[in-house]
Design brief:
By secondary structure, this protein is of the alpha/beta class. The protein is built from 25 helices and 14 strands. Strands 7-6-5-11-12 form a 5-stranded parallel sheet, with helices on both faces. A 4-stranded antiparallel sheet has the order 1-2-4-3. The structure holds one RNA strand.
Length: 583
RNA sequence: GCACCCGUAGUUCAAUUGGAUAGAAUGUCAGAUUCCGGUUCUGAUGGUUGGGGGUUCGAAUCCCUUCGGGUGCACCA
C-alpha cells in the first residue's frame, strides 16, 4: 500500500475514534509539507472543523495525538494554525525503498489495454518546418510518452496537408523558374527546395499585383486577377481532375519534401505509426452529412446548403456542406475522425493543434457527439499558443520565420562548442561525441519549448535558447551526471544496491546518503542523460513521486542543483494537460 | 461588435489546481576567486499577482466589472 492511502486510512480512523465522525478516504486530501516545517505530509484541517466541532488548530492537535499513539508509521507531528504536519518513521521509508527496488520499471504504469491516438505535426508540403512546428512536435511527442508511461497503448499519427492551392503555388513557380532543379543538383533539402519556390511565387504574385495597380486596377481586384494566381487556380482544377502531368509533378515534388521532413523528424527523434494525407481524405465526410440529415442533426437551407445548429451550446450555425454539394474543412474532419476510429479503435484521440483552431474543434467534437459517435467523449484538442520572436510575430512571407532545421543545427553546434571548451569529451570517439552533442543540444531546445504552459504564448529569445546556464536542460543533465558519479562511488565502496546504501550509512557522508535516497527513486532509465531528454516524461514521474513520496522534496533542498532538477521536472510540462486528457 | 485565451519581481517563467511568509532562472548591486572589465562561487536586492468589487476560515487561482495584449468570428484549409 502506498503511503498516501495508508495515512488517509489512519486519518479516517482517527476521525471516527476522536470525533465519532465518518469521513471517507476519498474526501481526505494530503499535501506536501512546506520546506520550512518538519514533516512530509500535511493535512489541512480547516474544512473539517465543522465535523470535529473544534477549532482547526485543536482538531489538528487531537488528530495528531491519536495518530502518534496508535499508528506506528507516524514518528512525530506538529500543528501550525490549521495545518497538521506529519513526520513518518524511518521504517516506512526503508520499506518503500525496498519496494521500489523490487519493482522493475518503477514509475511506468502497467498496460491498461486502453488505446490512444495522438495526432500532431501536420505539416504543409509547400514549405519546411519552422519553430512553431517544433513546439507542436515536441508537445505531441511528449504527451505520447506521458500517456505511454501511464499504461496507454499509444499510436502517433501525422495528417499531412499535401493538397490545395498553396501546394499548386510552389509547383507553378517551380515549373516557371525551376529549370529542372532537384535536391541533388541544388544541394538543398527537398522541403527547403519547395519552400524556395513558394517564396518565389509570392514575389512574382506581388510584382504582378503592382503592375496591375499601376495600370489603374483596384488593389482588391488586382489580388484576385493576377495571372499567376489564376494559373495556380487552374492548376488546382487540373489536379482535382487527375491531370497526368500535374499529378506527376505533384508526386515528384512531394516526394522531395517527404525526404526532407524525414530527415528533420529523424533529428528530433520522432517517428509516426501512421500517415494520413489530405489528398486521400479531403472528399470524406459527405456520407456523414447524409446521415446527419436523416438523424435530424443537420438541416438543409433553401439553396441546398447543409448546416448544423449549435446555438443551444452557445455556438453559431455552421455550414457542413456547400450548396453545390462540395465539402468544407469540417466535413473532411468529420470523415477523417471516423476513418481514424476505424483504423485504431481508440479510447482517446488527441489532436495537437494551435489555439487559433479552438473554435473549430469545439464545433467538430460537438457535432460528433450529436451524431452519437461512441468515441466522441474521448476526443481532446491539445491546444497551444504561438511562438513569438522578440521582433514580433513570425511571418513566412516576410522571411521572419525561424527554420526548424537551422535552429536544431545551431543547437548542436552550440552544444559542441560548449562541450569542447569545457574539455568534457576526452576519450570519446566521434560517434559518442556526436551523440552527446545531440542529447545536449536537442535537450536544451525541447526543454526551452516545453517548460512553458502549452496554452500560453512563448517568447522565443534566440540568445537565451542556446544558453546552457541557469534553468536549462544541460544544467539538469549535468546534475544527473553528477548524481550518477556519486552512485558509482558508492559502488566502489562496495555498496552494491541502493538498499544497502540506505542501511550501510557509515560509508558515506550524510549529504551523500540523502542524495542517494532521492535519486534511487528516479530509475536510471528515465534518467535525464537517457536517450530522450524529455522533460515532459520526467515531469510525469516527478509528479507521481511527489504525490506519493513527498519526503524527497524536503531532502532535495540539500543541494541547490537538486532543487533545480526537481523544479525542472515539475514545471517541464503542466501536468494539467495529462490529467485533463485522462479525464 | 460578439466569443475564447492570456496578464505574476526589471526580464523569461513557476506556484502541488482554493492552502501556510507567491518561488526559480536571469538581470542589477556587493563580496570571494584570478594573467583579465571574462568564467566560477557566496550573499543581497527585487511583488498592491494589470485595476476595482464579491464569494469564505483562506484567493494569483472561483464569480462580476474594468483596462491592456492575442486569437477566432469564410460556402479557405
Amino acid at each position: 500500500m502506498n503511503i498516501d492511502s495508508l495515512l488517509k486510512k489512519s486519518l479516517s480512523e482517527a476521525f471516527k475514534a476522536t470525533f465519532d465522525a465518518e469521513l471517507d478516504i476519498s474526501e481526505i486530501g494530503l499535501q506536501e509539507t512546506r520546506k520550512e516545517f518538519v514533516g512530509s505530509h500535511t493535512f489541512v484541517t480547516f474544512p473539517y472543523a465543522r465535523l470535529s466541532k473544534k477549532n482547526p488548530e485543536e482538531t489538528g492537535r487531537i488528530l495528531g495525538e491519536y495518530l502518534l499513539q496508535h499508528k506506528s508509521e507516524v514518528k512525530s507531528f506538529n500543528v501550525v494554525k490549521g495545518f497538521l504536519n506529519i513526520e513518518l518513521s524511518d521504517i516506512v521509508w526503508l520499506n518503500l525503498f525496498a519496494e521500489i527496488l523490487d519493482t522493475p520499471n518503477f514509475g511506468i504504469h502497467p498496460p491498461t489495454n486502453k488505446k490512444v491516438l495522438v495526432e500532431f505535426s501536420s505539416p504543409n508540403t509547400n514549405k519546411p518546418l519552422h519553430l512553431g512546428h517544433l513546439r507542436n512536435n515536441f508537445l505531441g511527442h511528449s504527451i505520447s510518452q506521458i500517456l505511454g508511461a501511464n499504461g496507454y497503448d499509444v499510436s502517433m499519427s501525422n495528417l499531412v496537408n499535401d493538397r490545395g492551392i498553396h501546394i499548386c503555388k510552389s509547383m507553378l513557380a517551380y515549373l516557371r523558374y525551376g529549370n529542372g532543379e532537384t535536391p541533388e543538383s541544388s544541394q538543398l533539402k527537398g522541403d527547403h527546395l519547395a519552400g524556395k519556390y513558394y517564396v518565389k511565387f509570392d514575389q512574382e504574385y506581388k510584382k504582378e499585383i503592382e503592375e496591375l495597380v499601376a495600370g489603374g486596377m483596384e488593389a482588391e481586384q488586382a489580388k484576385k486577377k493576377a495571372p499567376i494566381l489564376l494559373e495556380a487556380q487552374a492548376m488546382l482544377q487540373k489536379w482535382e481532375a487527375n491531370d497526368p502531368e500535374v499529378i506527376a509533378l505533384w508526386k515528384q515534388m512531394n516526394g522531395w519534401v517527404y525526404d526532407g521532413f524525414n530527415q528533420s523528424y529523424e533529428t528530433m527523434g520522432i517517428h509516426f505509426d501512421k500517415y494520413y494525407y489530405e489528398s486521400e481524405t479531403y472528399l470524406l465526410g459527405k456520407d456523414i452529412v447524409e446521415e446527419g440529415l436523416e438523424k435530424g442533426v443537420f438541416f438543409k437551407k433553401d439553396d441546398g446548403s447543409v448546416w448544423v445548429d449549435l446555438t443551444d451550446e452557445g455556438m453559431d450555425e455552421k455550414l457542413v456542406l456547400r450548396a453545390d454539394g462540395t465539402s468544407v474543412y469540417i466535413t473532411q474532419d468529420m470523415g477523417t475522425a471516423d476513418l481514424k476510429y476505424g483504423d485504431f479503435k481508440f479510447d482517446k484521440s488527441v489532436y495537437v493543434v494551435g489555439n487559433e483552431q479552438d473554435y473549430h474543434f469545439k464545433v467538430l467534437f460537438s457535432i460528433l457527439k450529436k451524431l452519437g459517435r461512441s468515441y466522441a467523449d474521448g476526443l481532446y484538442h491539445l491546444s497551444y499558443g504561438m511562438v513569438d520572436l522578440p521582433s514580433g510575430k513570425m511571418k513566412s512571407r516576410e522571411g521572419t520565420v525561424v527554420d526548424a532545421d537551422d535552429l536544431m543545427q545551431e543547437m548542436l553546434d552550440t552544444a559542441e562548442q560548449h562541450t569542447q571548451e569545457l574539455g568534457k569529451v576526452e576519450g570519446f570517439d566521434e560517434t559518442e561525441a556526436k551523440e552527446l552533442y545531440r542529447k545536449l543540444g536537442l535537450g536544451a531546445l525541447k526543454f526551452y519549448l516545453l517548460r512553458v504552459d502549452p496554452k500560453k504564448r512563448i517568447l522565443f529569445n534566440p540568445q537565451e535558447s542556446v544558453e546552457f546556464q541557469g534553468f536549462t536542460a544541460p544544467f539538469i543533465q549535468y546534475t544527473f551526471a553528477r548524481i550518477s558519479s556519486i552512485l558509482r562511488r558508492a559502488k566502489q565502496l562496495g555498496i552494491e544496491t541502493n538498499a544497502e546504501v540506505v542501511t550501510n550509512q557509515q560509508h558515506l557522508a550524510a549529504e551523500e546518503i540523502d542524495l542517494i535516497k532521492v535519486i534511487s527513486d528516479y530509475p536510471s532509465k528515465i534518467a535525464l542523460a537517457g536517450d530522450n531528454m524529455d522533460p515532459a516524461v520526467i515531469a510525469q514521474y516527478a509528479y507521481d513521486l511527489a504525490k506519493e513520496y513527498n519526503r524527497f522534496y524536503t531532502v532535495h533542498s540539500i543541494f541547490k542543483e537538486e532543487d533545480n532538477a526537481v523544479m525542472a521536472m515539475r514545471v517541464a510540462l503542466s501536468q494539467q494537460v495529462a490529467k485533463t486528457i485522462e479525464n
